[in-house]
Amino acid sequence: MTMADECCDVSKIATTFLLNTCRLLPRLSQRKIQGASLCAQTAGQHSAYDEEGDYIPLVTGSVAEFYIEPMLPHVGDIDVMFHRNTELAIPRRHRPPTQLPAEFHNYVTVFEIIDSHLPGYVYLELRYLLTQCVDDDEYNAIECDEAHNYTNKIFFEDNALVIHGPAGFADNGDSLYLSVDAVPCVRCLSWPPQAADWPTRHRNYGWPDSATVDRVVGNGCDVVPVAHRQCRQHEWMGMCQHRLSFSRAEIVLINSWRPLQQIVYHMLRYFKKTERLTDCADNSGADTLSNYHIKTLMLWACELKQRSWWTEDLNLVRICVELLHTLSVWLSDTRYPHYFTNNCNLLDNSFNVKNMTSKFVSIDEQYLSTRLMTNYIGQCAQMCPVYISRLFNDVSTTTVLENVVSEIIRWRLSTSHYDMRQAVRFAELVVAVQVPDFPLTARSCVYWMNELAKIDQRFCMYFSAVALLRVAHEVSRTSFSNDLLDILAIIPGSNVNQCCSILSQHKTELNTKELVELLQKSAVEHLTTYRQLMSQEFGSVATIVTTDFEAMYAYKRGDYQRCLQLSTQNVQTLRNAYRMTGVLTYPGFIQMLDDDIVSLTALTLIVNPRCRDNTGGICVSQLTLSLYLMTQCQLKLCYSMMSLAHTLDYVEEAQGIHPREHTLDQLTLKLIERKVYAMISP
Q1: Please, which residues have CB within 8 angstroms of residue 404's CB and are 6 or more apart in sequence?
Q2: Three-state SS at 398
């Protein structure tokens, strides 16, 4: 076999690997869940600059663009753009609107978009004040007298939102929570004149189609407070210059790509990041190509290449090589055309064009095939069981490589249901941490419910339960408020309606106690329904009992017989379980646990700092919790020595099931032993 034949074989193997391991993003995914939580967090905050205004968030960038899920991480962070609903930008010399989307405030400040000397970069000049008329909901405009009142970046300083993830959630030492890049902007509902040619330019191969073009244009654009790199040190332009953002358009367009085009986009980004293809050899500090350059290259390729170019003799490595050579030509000509904005070149004097051009010219199919095999597929092999990773250590022929790839693909396909279960676990953690820890308002509740419903309607049930527990805690700790009533009005459930009725009555101490109990009862009903729904789908992946929260609530209310009945049934179900779920000991659930479990949780975090960065120390398994409740009820109901001895047998079994690093489980099981021995010892 010649070197060319072997190269061709490796390229085909790599293509098969990527097409079969880059699966479609499932409806349950960790990045979707984090995006939903960030939108809710953002919507729940107010601007220090404008107390009347609300933030309107939008998840953008890679998280919103990719609908594939490769084996290797391909999304480094989550981009959240947000604008105030009291501000609007319009193109220069356009009349202010008389109608606005419902998200906008009754009073809106309008800025005109003024061109700068650099294409795609603009200034914002205060132009109108809009006031909504009560009679017909139309907006009336008042023109501002002061001319050349340009907005500068100080105007955006209060937009440093406090958005974060659940501290301490990690898997094998690596954080599962992506970093966040929050970008303030001013919304423009119109398609900008600076990109006027884009909707109507001739397209030989029908992409994007007319419906997609209409969607893009209908979304308008945004203006972000970013100056061109050449102007950042300028005293005035560095403060006042802004950039037109087409993030909304890019989401629509990239989501319209075929899966193989998204895979190519992913591959190009991977090579740029890992192969250091664009680094400057002379360390001159010149800027290198970014993901935005790769995105622009792909957008032009999808428009200018006919369908057969992508699909005939399908070879993803060949496609990447040809696109990199196109990039080389653009670099050689010092011409990198912006996809939307007219006469805008993405290259300037800061780029070491000669050095980068030579690197791209030298890349061929053999080089990329080899690097893809050793780096990309090699990393994927390390994610698999040991027997697969060991096979990859001896890839001496293409036949062996083909066998290893087949094993990786088979394993990848077999893990999809388990990965979904992990995403559910992540969603439960995100909601359990952020709802008690972050300001909760009626507005943020609406965002939570709407965003979670887009992912899975069942998460709305879980969120409702955690929100109810948050309200119960607030009521017991402080007092009633209209804000709490507004939150309850959003959450469904018959008991919730009863809670709202109590809140509307005269607020006595008796009513407070009754309200807290009703809130907790309603939360338990939501959680029980949620457990039942999840058990139906994931019962083949993990054993999930559905009455653990009901048992906790029965114990809290002193109904020990009912708690014992439920807990005993749960122990029998969970004794031989291979995998099981747990109960989080985060703030929202603390009120449902007794003092001993709460104290053990605190002790765990003190004696084992690693638990602060791992889920083991903040979650107690359903088996351990059921054994604890069963033992407590047996002791309170004065059960026989023989019954308690049987319980010790169950505890010994459970100690063997739970790994030593599950600190809270092990401590709780030890506590059960001590309680039982204290009772049965003479």
Answers
A1: 377, 381, 388, 391, 392, 395
A2: helix
Q: State the residue for tokens 């906008």.
A: 104
Contacts of 621 (CB under 8 A, 6+ apart): 574, 580, 581, 582, 583, 658, 662, 665
What are the two backbone dihedrals, phi and then psi, of residue 498, each rounded to the nearest 5 degrees? -65, -40
H/E segment holding residue 412: helix 398-414
Q: Where are the alpha helices (DSSP H) in 438-508?
A: 442-455, 457-477, 482-488, 494-504
Reduced to 3 states (helix: H, G, I; strand: E, B; else coil), residue 176 is coil
Q: Is the pLDDT of residue 157 over 60?
A: no
pLDDT tens sequence across 332-350: 888 899 999 988 999 876 6
User: What are the C-alpha distances in Å from 451 to residues 32, 197, 381, 541?
Assistant: 9, 35, 35, 26
The Cα–Cα gap between 177 and 537 comes to 25
**Residue-wise pLDDT tens digits, 304-336:** 999 999 998 899 999 999 999 999 899 888 889
Residue 352 has pLDDT above 70, yes or no: no
Three-state SS letters, 610-638: HHHHCHHHHEEEHHHHHHHHHHHHHHHCC
Prior bond of 659 cis (ω within 30°): no
Distance (Å) of CA 655 to CA 334, 658, 662, 668: 67, 6, 10, 10
Which is nearest to 78 in space by CA: 103, 50, 59? Answer: 59
Record the tokens describing residue 537, joined without a space.
């789908």
Closest-CA residue to 166 (of 412, 425, 400, 402): 425
Is the model's pLDDT at 5 over the cut of 70? Answer: no
Per-residue burial over 572-606, b = 16 or more CB atoms within 10 Å of its CB, e = otherwise: ebbeebeebbbbbbbbbbebbbeeebeebbeebbe
133 C-beta neighbours (distance < 10 Å), count = 11
For 392-418, write each residue's pLDDT tens digit.
888 878 888 899 999 999 999 998 888
Q: How far is CA 234 from CA 155, 175, 231, in A?
A: 18, 39, 5
In the structure encoding, which two tokens stand for residue 48, read together? 């220090």
Q: Report in angstroms the alpha-carbon separations of 243 from 83, 235, 448, 463.
A: 15, 17, 30, 38
| Cα gap 255→491, rounded to integer Å | 33
Query: pLDDT digit string (tens) for 215-266?
Result: 999 999 999 999 988 888 888 898 899 999 999 999 999 999 999 999 999 9
**CA 682/CA 679 separation, integer angstroms:** 8
Structure tokens at 353: 């064009």
pLDDT in tens, 569-607: 999 999 988 888 888 888 778 888 888 888 888 888 777
Q: Describe the crossing of helices 442-455 and 416-437 by its angle, rounded to 10 degrees.
A: 180
Helix 663-680, helix 595-607: angle, nearest 10: 130
What's the pTM? 0.88
Which residue shows structure tokens 């083949």? 540
